[in-house]
Write a structure and sequence with these properties.
Largest sheet: 3 strands, antiparallel
Bound molecules: iron/sulfur cluster, zinc ion
Number of helices: 5
CATH architecture of the largest domain: Beta Complex
Shape: flat
Order of helices and strands: HEEEEEEHHEEHEH
Helix content: 10-25%
CATH superfamily of the largest domain: DNA-directed RNA polymerase, insert domain
Length: about 220
């Protein structure tokens, strides 16, 4: 039962922040009501001679919007004549309390690349363009043997600042830097919230924290010597 409960808890469920309250902030006082929890039921009996797989698609929700993000998440295998019956409750929660409430599967950022090619140095280059051959991401547009290399328009999406082009250019024509004020964020959602909501809500929470911090600073007595 514990393994089942764990598997069930980790199934990402589509979330509706507009119509549901956090249980601890709900008018029911945390007892659980239709404004703060959704019931998911499962009632499966294997009458066949083969083993069957119970998946997230077998969960029946009392709100058609609040359902697993995918119907194909395995829960358990049932052998002939076995059955699985339960009632589960899904509630809003915060990831700092438990990882099962995470709405983001993966997040990372990297610096925005700034790469300059000094065309004057390229003019006298006898190995056009050997530097671009070393770019494993193929981010250079190399024309004829006479034309100077250029970066493709969206090079920043894939450049990982490896500096291979810089090291391999015999004329020192390539400068690889990054912008201190620009970052490329990559966010992988687990499907429970749309991206727009994820970003908007994150900023709202961040702003609330800053306002709270400012408020606490106001009430502090600071002595400056
Ligand atoms: S970038 Fe470097 S290797 Fe490429 S053409 Fe210019 S000088 Fe030559
Ligand atoms: S820094 Fe690396 S990835 Fe970026 S353009 Fe140069 S060789 Fe390619
Ligand atoms: Zn409630």
């Amino acid at each position: 039962d514990e393994i089942l409960a764990h598997r069930l808890a980790m199934i990402p469920i589509v979330t509706d922040l507009k119509h549901y309250n956090f249980q601890q902030e709900c008018s029911c006082g945390g007892a659980g009501c239709s404004l703060c929890s959704v019931t998911l039921t499962c009632d499966i009996k294997n009458d066949t001679d083969e083993t069957i797989l119970v998946t997230s698609g077998d969960l029946i929700s009392n709100d058609p919007i609040i359902v697993p993000v995918s119907p194909n998440i395995p829960i358990v295998k049932l052998e002939h004549d076995s059955s699985l019956t339960f009632e589960a409750f899904t509630v809003l929660g915060r990831a700092k309390d438990h990882a099962k409430f995470q709405s983001v599967a993966n997040i990372g950022y990297r610096f925005y690349p700034k790469i300059e090619i000094d065309e004057r140095k390229c003019e006298k280059c006898t190995q056009k363009c050997i530097a671009s051959d070393y770019c494993s991401k193929k981010l250079f547009e190399v024309g004829t043997e006479k034309s100077n290399p250029k970066l493709i328009p969206d090079f920043w999406k894939n450049c990982d600042l490896c500096e291979a082009c810089f090291h391999e250019c015999p004329e020192g024509a390539i400068k690889v830097e990054w912008d201190d004020n620009k970052f490329i964020f990559s966010i992988e959602s687990d499907g429970v919230l749309p991206f727009g909501t994820l970003l908007k809500k994150s900023w709202e929470i961040f702003k609330e924290k800053i306002d709270d911090f400012k408020e606490q600073l106001k009430n502090l007595e600071i002595e400056i010597e």
